[in-house]
Amino acid sequence: MNCAQPGCAGTIVDGYCDVCGLAGAAAPAAQGAAPSGSPAGPASSRSATSRLGTVPLGSARNATGSRPTRRLGGGGNPSRLGAGLTHVPPIPEVDPQQSLMNPPVVAEEKRYCSVCQSAVGRSREGAPGRTKGFCAKCRTPFDFEPTLVAGNLLSGQYEVMGCLAHGGMGWIYLARDRNVNDRWVVLKGLLNAGDPDASRAAVAEKQYLAEVEHPLIVEIYNFVTSADGNSYIVMEYVGGRSLNNLLKDRMKSNGGTFSPIPVDQAIAYVVEILPAFGYLHSLGLLYCDFKPANLIQVGDSMKLIDLGGVRRVDDDQSPIYGTVGFQAPEVARDGTTVASDLYTVARTLATLVFEFKGYQAQFETTLPSADEVALFGQFDSLYRWLQKGTAQRPEDRFQTAEEMREQLFGVLREVTAAVGTGAVTRSTPSQMFGQPAATADLLTWRDLPRLAIDPRDAMASWLTTVTTDEPAARFAALEGAPEQTVAVMAERADAALRTDQVQLAEHLAQRILDADPWEWRGVWLQGLAALSRSDPAAAVAAFNAVYGQVPGELAPKLALAAACEAAGEPAVAERLYTTCARTDAAFVATGQFGLARIAAQAGDRDAALHALDRIPATSRAYGDARRSRALLLAAALDPAHALQDLGQAANELEQASLQPVERASLRIRLLESALVHVQAQGPQMAQEVGGVPAAELPLRRALESAYRDAARLATDGDRRVELVDKANAVRPRTLV
Q: Are 91 and 583 in contact (CB under 8 A)?
């Protein structure tokens, strides 16, 4: 099938044009994949990204770049496939001999010149395309015929069984190792096949791969040379399915229409494999050419395969291998780095979870907007993670595989929580933030999680010796720190805020950013300062920027929700509160209180009551939730249900966290409202309000008693007299 795009001579392969990368005419509009067990929902117009946008910190502040962002170490997260959060169906091991190509032929539409990428070996005038020849454009020779056939024996040890596949570096062969129990191995050719000297040099150059040992990386056994001088890497055989093949399987089962891998499963794959990248980077190696075809699932485990493109970090001479649509934009100009390696990881995840039309053409180095992809509207944190992972400038991306994995694990928690049912019972401590305070009132900066101390900071140990929590004393102690590191300045800024030294806190935050424009902790402190001086718009900008830097963390989302609520952005705040409340047990109460406030402000009392009901009895905020319910039920009474609501409100008071004075005041309020209703509508003896029948006489007696109880608690003399007068006025009159 030919490409329908005007001016394009490409062919549709696997649903996409092999030239321009756009989908075939029959392909449907892009749709995001829902997590396992849940249908995809429409993109929300209240997405924080769609509404607020974001830019990398350093780029926004320093056009020439600066040091990479400082990070906290991760670790401690489950490493098994699914990360303990979701189920990934196992893939049975494939019989190697069932995977052989018979016959081994490279499809004509996949034949391209290795130098200029022009189409070669194509059919003309009814004659089949040549498998050997020269590129008509640059005269580079091409050869798509296997150099090894079944029965060939290399180095007296490896017996060739046939061809498994054809890749960018030539044919991949299946063989048996006669010296090691006839185990299955894979032979992959090195480049420079026509130059024996270059081939031998390539072998010598790649010998370090034999020292790579990691359970997630295919094992390199040996390097061998055939009789004709061609060199091959001998690798472990991994008999599963690549992610690329899984996508093809899903597409075939879906009638030829693209079917993304469920987003929770796709994220689980990447979370699982990122430690392999961290391992390679720790050895000073770069993978360079990561894509769905190079990650295989077998059983419930993953393997990173095809190490042919691996190169040393300091290598600026050898060829760089990559794939259009996955390779970072700066590689052709500046070479490869850890940041460019991680870029390929983010691009790979993007191609797994939605129909990424034009990822090799229109969006070769960019992402579609959140408004164009339903999945991004559904999972804002995932979009933020992809944005950072594929940022145009290397400085704006994740700087370590550990950091990238830690944030993606947080995204996975949010994704799986979105389709969960029942109460949230699990909490995962953050490496970067503490826990929020649970308050029914509008969140202030004091209620937000506090910054954790970076254990890698030079003054981390010293800071543990500052044990006082009294703000003034703590600020004074911190001024005597031997060195004013980021952690020390952040703690000083926090203490300054707590002693109402807002300008000093902002000065310290700016010092942090002057030293490192990518240091999001400085921006976090600026957001706190903005909230403290009642500037919600500035707080929104600050917390939104922090969210973009650490998209897997809940604290920035909660802070952004609080700022948006104060700034008159209830729709965005509602979405963020929802994410917090459903993801982590430590955030449930704070998030549900936020949702209750927004619903109440919108006049939706039932939604507000429902939000408060979701605060579990085990929470320390349960009593406050009961108090809030009582206040909601007592306000804006519907005459048809007034007594029922007042009765329920009185019952809530029994479980509410209240001081005696406030409890007495609320009881008075409920009884007064009940008395007014009964006087207007008549008694309802079957209904009770705080154990008092809904009739005038018992309500008067109860209200008199409530006034006198409150008078005994009053500390102000005038107030005490006022309450006694009210008691006397409401007391039932008798003839005795």
A: no
CB 407 within 8 Å of CB 389: no
List, in order, residues 6 or more apart from 562 with CB less than 8 Å away: 442, 443, 444, 447, 448, 531, 539, 573, 594
* Span 52-96, pLDDT tens digits: 777 788 765 554 554 445 444 444 444 478 888 999 999 988 889
Q: Side chain identity at 441, as an amino acid letter?
A: D
Q: Is 149 helix (H, G, I), strand (E, B) or coil?
A: coil
Mean pLDDT calculated for residue range 266-280: 97
Q: How far is it, in rounded angstroms, from Cα 696 to Cα 701?
A: 9
* Residues 6+ positions from 733 with CB-CB distance below 8 Å: none
Tokens standing for residue 182: 């006839």
Q: Let me know: does 454 contact 464? Beta carbons within 8 Å.
A: no
Placement of tokens 């006082």 in the chain? 468
Give the CB-side neighbour count of residue 403, counting CA atoms within 13 A: 20
**296 phi and psi angles, rounded to 5 deg:** -115, 135
pLDDT tens, position by position, 521-541? 999 999 999 999 999 999 999
Q: Is 132 left (phi over 0), alpha (psi -120 to 50) or beta?
A: beta
The residues assigned a catalytic role are: 289
Separation of alpha carbons 107 and 109, rounded Å: 6
Instruction: Give me the mean pLDDT over the 465-484 stretch.
Output: 94
Compute the distance between CA of residue 483 and CA of residue 194 in angstroms, rounded to an integer: 60
Q: Are 203 and 223 in contact (CB under 8 A)?
A: yes
Residue 170 phi, psi (nearest 5): 110, -160
Gap between the Cα atoms of 18 and 556, Å rounded: 42
């496939």: which residue's tokens? 81
Mind listing the domains of the chain with CATH numbers?
A: 31-91+241-418 (1.10.510.10), 96-104+146-236 (3.30.200.20), 621-736 (1.25.40.10)
Q: Provide the Cα torsion 615, 620, 621, 624; round to 10°.
A: 120
